[in-house]
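Ticket #4471: structure export looks truncated?
Reporter: QA, pipeline team
Priority: medium

Steps to reproduce: submit the single chain below to the structure queue and open the exported record.
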Amino acid sequence: MNEAVRKSMVAVLTFGGGTALLCILTFIHINQGSVSIPTGTIIDSVFAPEDTLQHHTIRMLRLPRAVMGIIAGGALAVAGVVLQTVTKNPLSSASTLGIHSGTYFAVVFSTVFFPAALVGNGIIVAFLGGILTFLIVFILSGGNSATPVRMVLAGMIVTFLFSSLTSVLQIFYENETAGLFLWGSGTLVQNDWSGVNFSLPFVVIGLAVILGFTFKMDTLTLGDDVAVALGQNVNVVKFVSIVAAVLLTSVTVSVVGPIGFVGLVAPHIIKLIGYRKHLPLVIASFIWGGNVLLFADVLARVIDPSFSELPVGAITALIGAPWLIYLVLRMKRSKYGEENSAVMAGKKTISMPLKVVIPLLISIIILTMIVSLASGNYGFEPVLLWNTFFGESNDFMLGLIVDLRLPRALVALLSGMILAVSGLIFQGVLRNPLADPSVIGITSGAGVGALLTMYVFGVSAVWVPIGAMAGSFVFFVFVMILAIRAQFQPTILALLGIGVSAFGSAIIQILVVQADMGVASALTWLSGTTYAKGWSELLDFLIWPVVILFPLLLIRIRVLDTLSLGDDTAKGLGLNIMSARFQLALIATLLAAFSVAAVGAIGFVGLIAPHAARLLVGPSNQRLLPVTILVGGALLVIADLFSRTLLAPNEIPSGILVAIIGAPYFLWLMKKRA
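Actual output as written to the record:
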């Protein structure tokens, strides 16, 4: 076929076909609703409107929603094109770089403390939050020298941090933030044309600026040195382009909430077709971004025909997470850089013998538990604790401590130990110092299984741990398949874990909305909490992994040291690598599942504890295991204590506190190595 004819056909399919598909999806979208409206009435309402209820329903409710979907999807897709070009990172988008979480946090924070600042749908606040978040991620990942994996990892951790802070505000200011939960998951719900009228001028301005800079962005793809030689002011081009991209992102967030992955999927569809020049790339991405978002909203209402409003952001994550996994697997190994294989692996910086470290950690745990038992709504009361056990008997205080405070502290202790060991195993098995049950998606899988058991199958609570284990096992098998495909390369696995975790989180979001959980209770469960946990959780979920799985792991711990020598050396020593990896990862998965069944999805413990242990005693797993167990237990016991006392009588979910502690620590390590 003639090359010119082929290009013409591609252009017709990309632009003409994309526009035709957009029209078809718009028509299907408008035709969806709790009340069926004939096709002829829909056409008449658009081209020959009358003063009837059906025409008003279409023109004032359904049509604005469809148009808003096109505008928002197009804006997010164009922002993705710019971010990928400026950062030289094919995995960049407003969601993977944490910009969405920053804009969302800024809006929620202003809603609670500075409502007067929310002029114009809060676009100024959202814009400032987006710019600040991008700068944080860009600087922490190494600036212009950042690799794709480092930038996306920084975006992931910043997302965790801002999401945790946002959850705290939503839990404690539930009335002030009412209605923001669904919006925070992304929704196209429109009651009139006000959202379209507000966003359209900003999107037009941002799009015009980016279209004016398309030639300049073409030169950026050749490298900064070549762009300078061609007369471009690289810093100005990058600055203006990023400001325009964040403007497009913030205006969509201010109207429809943070909708992820559209800025990743749509530009790559166009790039796969073969477009590289930014003028056709930007225009085509706008069209196909609208297609992606409209398709997601149509799919949301197909999945839930009751029209109780599934968050479209969760549906785009269901579509986008597999796309992210595909992109990561498709990219060449050279894209990641070998230096990432040791990112934050940790090294021995404090030379302390085990006979000092272990008693010290045990002392910290005991002291924290004593303070926890003596602390309540009235502050720290050690004398009352002493009198309860050794002085005059106080039946009320004795019951309060023995039946409420003590089992809760023990639940926190054992959960922390279990999560820490799970993280240590995953880091060794996957040769990935960034592995953690929550980061690679195992915790999400357990959460999916637990929620399906509770709210879909409707069985008794006894089956919840079985559901959690089943969900975590399914996700574990998927992660292992991906790990084999990626040849256990640490950097690739870190990115794949983000995709798997995002997929699981999207399912959890959908289940939470479907189950009609209260916002505060939903956020509390999703964040992980030790609140109201007692002897039943301890005896049903946490004792068994400690009694059965810990000794089993102690016997097999040498295998982790052998795996750390590399596959060839391990094979030479007679180790069946695949079998060993599978067995150990299965133990880690079961540990994570038991923890989720007991306290929900608490993250970061499995990431922080092994790193902190390595800093104390070095990389040998036989030395690491007891120290990691104690560090993990101490971390969650301390988090549990602060969760009860910092804002007493209100409580902060322990998982949120751990994330608030863990995310800055993780970012500090990244910055230190950058």
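Status: closed, not a bug. The export was complete when the record was re-opened. Leaving a note from the reviewer for reference: The two ends are 49 Å apart (CA to CA).
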